[in-house]
Amino acid sequence: MRRNGKVVIKKLEEKARRQVTFSKRRKCLLKKAHELSVLCDVPIGLIIFSQTNKLYDFCSHSTSMENLIMRYRKAKEGHASADHSLHPDHGSKCEEKKESMMREIENLKMNLELYGGHGLNLLTYDDLLRFELQLESSLHNARTRKFEIMHQQQQKEEPKPKGKGKEQGSSWEHLMWQAETQMKMMTSHRQEDDDVMCRQVKDEFPFYGEEQPTRVLQLLRTLPPSPSQPGQL
After folding, report:
1. Model's pTM, two decimal places?
2. In the chain, ranges of CATH 3.40.1810.10 domains
């Protein structure tokens, strides 16, 4: 079939026609392979399987099909090794990056569980102290930012009139005073909890003298106070 002067190649639907065409073109292909091998003195190997799984092959007289297959495999392996030699450390670097990302994912999962109140029984006392300070610092930053946003919204919604600058300033100072008061209350409650914990530890582990405190009491007594001012972070 011709379309716009070109022969359209497509599958033949009639089985008998396919068999006749296969026989003719196979013979032509084998003939062309033989001519190319003789004219150019190059080794050529050709393998054909029919629809009935019948094998047809051709090999140049100067070589054998086994040798051609071995040369083909070596050539393919050579190309693969050449491509790999351009980046010899590529595989190891990818593996290291993968392991690093997996560790980071595990750390993020653990942090999410901790912030949700899960897995706290796996932490040591020092880890719990650091986690508590981190939570208090995050809470302080969140509240400070909240009051800043409230102040900005107040300035946008209420344009500053003449003669009322002091009232605007006093309103902002009142908000900051509330933030500082909340932080002081948190510090006070935390100190009370630490005192209760100290008493519980003393009741459970009585000492014979004050000169031999345990490591737990040392940590409790040297616990750093949480920041009470917005700038003390």
Report:
1. 0.34
2. 2-76
